[in-house]
Amino acid sequence: MSWPADDRREDPTSNPAHRPSHGRPQPVSTYRLQVRREFGFADAAAVTDHLDALGASHAYLSPVLTPVPGSAHGYDVVDHTRLSPDAGGRPAFEQLVEALQGRSMGAIADVVPNHMAVPTPASLNAPLWSVLRDGPDSPFASWFDVDWTGEGHALLMPVLGSRIGQVLGDGELSLDLSGDEPLLRYYDHVFPVRPGTQSLPLAEMVDRQHYRLAHWRVADEELNYRRFFDVDTLAAIRVEDPEVFDATHRVLLDLIADGSLDGLRIDHPDGLADPLGYVRRLHERTGGAWVVVEKILEGSETLPDEWPVAGTTGYDALLRVGGLFVDPAGAGPLSALLAELTGDSRGFEAVVEEAKREVVEGGLYAEVHRLTQLLVSICTRDVRLRDHTERGLRECVVELLVAFDRYRAYVVPGQSPDPTAVAAVEAAAARARPHVPEDRHDTLDVVRDLVLGREAGSAGLIDEPERRELIVRFQQTCGPVMAKGIEDTSFYRWFRLTSLNEVGGDPDRLGISADEFHAYAAAQVRDWPVAMTTLSTHDTKRSEDVRARIGVLSEMPTEWADRVRSWREAAAAHRTAPLDAATEYLAWQTLVGTWGTSSPEPGAPRGPLDAQRLLDYLTKATREAKLHTQWTDVDEEYEGAVAAFVTGVLGDEALLAELAAFDERITSAVRTATLGQKLVQLTMPGVPDVYQGTELVDLSLVDPDNRRAVDFDVRRARLARLDAGAGPQDLHDEKLLVTSRALRVRRDRPEAFVGERCAYTPLATSTGSALAFARGTVRGDGDGSDAGAEHDVVVVAARLEIARERHGGWGQHSVVLPGGAWRDVLSGRGVRGGTTPLADLVGDLPVALLVRVDDGGRGAQDTDEEADA
Questions:
Q1: Can you tell me whether residue 316 is helix, strand or coil?
Q2: What is the DSSP letter of 217?
């Protein structure tokens, strides 16, 4: 897949929400903190000194409203009216705000508009409790996206360990009349009793409730409320209703209004019925505060221009930055190695198609069934469409969902669809057509037209409620199919280079060129100059530094293949029959990716990942793959074989010595990739986020591994030592140096990075083994993406070291710097503008961050040399 920039608009954006804020605090950089019981608001206040010393302008907080008690992440909100008691509540939050503002810093917070938790006990969620008790008559009935038209008009509660008949027969349900209201109990689960039914016989009483207790396996087939992906314990809410929006956002809006928060990060906007309407209302109600949205952009897809937001949360930036440090030449050999090991030569696209089919027929069956029933009802009511059968409609909607290549097409009922949305749906229909029998092609066309809101069948029916509902629900289903089919299944099945198996990633594509990156960055500075950028988040499958280590393998695919073959032979004694080659290959890549120091303490020994962490990761990975074992059907024999392999390898000293030798072999290249991608992310167009702890090398895997406690004392001590003038002792120190100096440069020169006239200019290099660009401010009428700028900062990053050394090293290769005098804030060296040998800039440390000492009246094009370049 290619990622062209030429489908973006040619003119500078006219939407002021995309530009830096006027009259409101504008984040220059953020530092992500995971707030929870173990690390509350007071703990966050206690580390503001470190965030300030790093140079971050804002603390970026995980959701701050009340979650399920003991929540590890905060995305399972149960009460929108209170700040999290687990984190210390309002007093501790105010302490945090005071600590930040005392350092001229601010806070932004994560918002979860799509769903609330279905907790145990349900009474923790007062709106849900009311709906369970009073059904459609509850004042909160409009909050939840429930289909009340089903049998018994009851909300499905799939919590039982066996079928309802057996549960009743075994006496596992009981009526509790000891409190203020009657309760129905099932172990830890507690439910309200519909008024007037408590005197009935137990079975009849259960049948008369506004909820239907059911075996947990019933959910995938008969669930009648919208949920987050396939998670039954996260029920979707209808923030498109102004009353629901007001009630669920009041506390956050008040915090924006009183200055406690300067901005918001919006979780999963694609799940909403009306994403555009939501962000417009939020923009209006916050007075234009800085807002970024967690939108996963696929390929060359761009965020809709009409959205009044600052941009995305940065997975598109992660894709491009990471791609700079992956060698495209490795694609063929790595594909051959994967096929050799697994016996499967299929590409990633085929794996995705298979996984999506499993998802729509399995975990998301209920959602697909609802779409099918809507289509059946629409066609039955229209004589011109009546011959399209239920089976045919289901086949076509399944194929359209499988073929859809993005999280959503933004079609609004009653409005002409945007050309981009039309193109996306039309393309999906074209891909689906070969999978549909020829006599169903007309049915596919009807489904396509209906989800686009076109006139289909008889005239005058386009605004029927069911047709409008179909448009919305189809879009709300595309995202879960993508997420569950790709991120949560295919990424755990196909392992050509696992560093590419990332949120928003494209495992089919190895690497991007410097020119491609420059085109992307130029478009960002023009269209979305204050969008967020990131390398690690709470959702990434691997930390930035694990990905950097694995990415280096693309530069040495033949040597890597030889090593893997050798290790597999040496590990034969640890391998038992159920273990498959794909999982073993994932284990080898994971061992290499996580090999490092056991702690951030200076002098900590290098070695493999802790055995329990590695085993926990592989257990999650194999269950997500759903090929040999899964969360709902654990294969203990298979998981035992994985555990035996991990234990055997980590106890094999000779094999560990070989792994250690390979780690030594790639150390220098890993250093280049680790520091290079960090500096580029921190200085490219946008507002960079630093995920907690990643100012040092962080070798974390997917959650919950990436939510482990951060040792801020060690980080303070290391930074203080660097600030006192000591040189870096190790890669931890070097990454901390790069992070702190880049953030401080941004803080000292915000106009060059997030100002109204901030600019990005590529700088010419004589080799693809280096990336160079300048940041500054636009001259005259420039749009920020041209060379007509006053440059204040220059970034140079080496890349693809192994490939470079194979071709003779730096040699005479050079970069053309803007004229004037410069100082490298990483090394302290002075540099003059003009043609400069790369060996002088990045020969020792593989990155350079230059700031202008004096401009001498010279700008970006002040020499003939630069103009020619």
A1: helix
A2: G
DSSP-derived secondary structure for 218-278:
GHHHH--B-EETTEEEEEEB-TTSHHHHHHHHHHHHHHHHTTS-SEEEES-GGGSS-HHHH
- Reported as a pLDDT band with limits 50, 70 and 90, residue 535 is very high
Average confidence (pLDDT) over 125-148: 96
Q: What is the pLDDT of residue 21?
A: 62
Assess contact for 265 and 63: CB atoms under 8 A. Answer: no
Closest CA to 331 of 506, 130, 75: 506
Q: Which helix (H) or strand (E) holds 48?
A: helix 48-54
Q: Alpha-carbon distance 566 to 553, whole Å? A: 16
Angle between helix axes 315-324 and 514-527 (nearest 10 degrees) is 150
Provide φ and ψ at 14, rounded to 5°.
-100, -5
d(CA 561, CA 556) in angstroms, rounded, equals 9
Three-class HEC string of 553-613: HHHCHHHHHHHHHHHHHHCHHHCCCCCCHHHHHHHHHHHHHHCEECCCCCCCCEECCCHHH
Positive or negative torsion for Cα 82, 87, 90, 93: negative
Beta strands 231-236 and 115-117 are: antiparallel
Neighbours of 346 (CB within 10 A): 14
Widest Cα–Cα separation across the chain: 93
CA distance 618 to 610: 12
298-354: pLDDT as tens digits: 988 999 999 999 999 999 999 999 999 999 999 999 999 999 999 999 999 999 999
Residues 6 or more apart whose CB falls under 8 angstroms from that of 847 comprise: 675, 676, 679, 738, 795, 796, 797, 798, 826
Structure token pair of residue 614: 């590695």
Question: What distance, in Å, lies between the first and last C-alpha atoms of the chain?
Answer: 31
Q: Token digits for 334? A: 């790595």
Q: Which two tokens stand for residue 288?
A: 């234009």
pLDDT score of 847: 98
Is pTM beyond 0.90 here? yes
d(CA 398, CA 229): 16
Tally: H helices and E strands in the chain: 30, 26
Query: Amino acid letter at 330?
Result: G
Distance from C-alpha of 254 to C-alpha of 232, rounded to nearest angstrom:
31
Decide: 60 and 719 in contact? Cβ < 8 Å: no
Question: What pLDDT shows up at residue 749?
Answer: 97
At 455, list the tokens: 């006139």
The total number of residues written for the chain in this structure: 869
Q: Are the C-beta atoms of 697 and 732 separated by less than 8 Å? A: yes
Per-residue pLDDT at 785 exceeds 90: no
Instruction: Identify the three-state secondary structure at position 715.
Output: helix
DSSP 328: G
Decide if 595 contacts 549 (C-beta within 8 A).
Answer: yes
Up-side HSE of residue 35: CA atoms within 13 Å toward CB?
35
Number of Cβ atoms within 10 Å of the Cβ of 674: 25
Given a contact cutoff of 8 angstroms between Cβ atoms, the answer to whether 140 and 237 are in contact is no
Q: Which residues pair with 789 in a beta bridge?
A: 778
What's the rounded Cα separation, in Å, for the pair 436 and 375?
Answer: 17
**Residue 9, pLDDT score:** 35
Tokens matching residue 867? 């103009």
Instruction: Compute the mean pLDDT over every residue in the chain, rounded to the nearest whole number.
Output: 94
- 545-563 pLDDT, tens per residue? 999 999 999 999 999 999 9
Residues in Cβ contact with 626 at an 8 Å cutoff, skipping those fewer than 6 apart: 358, 489
Q: Which residue has the tokens 């897809």?
A: 301
Q: Could you list the beta-strand ranges (E) of 134-210.
A: 155-160, 174-176, 183-186, 189-192
Query: Where does the pLDDT of residue 148 fall: very low under 50, low under 70, confident under 90, or very high at 90 and above?
Result: confident
HSE value, Cβ hemisphere, 13 Å, CA-based, for 315: 24
- Statement: residue 610 has pLDDT above 80: yes
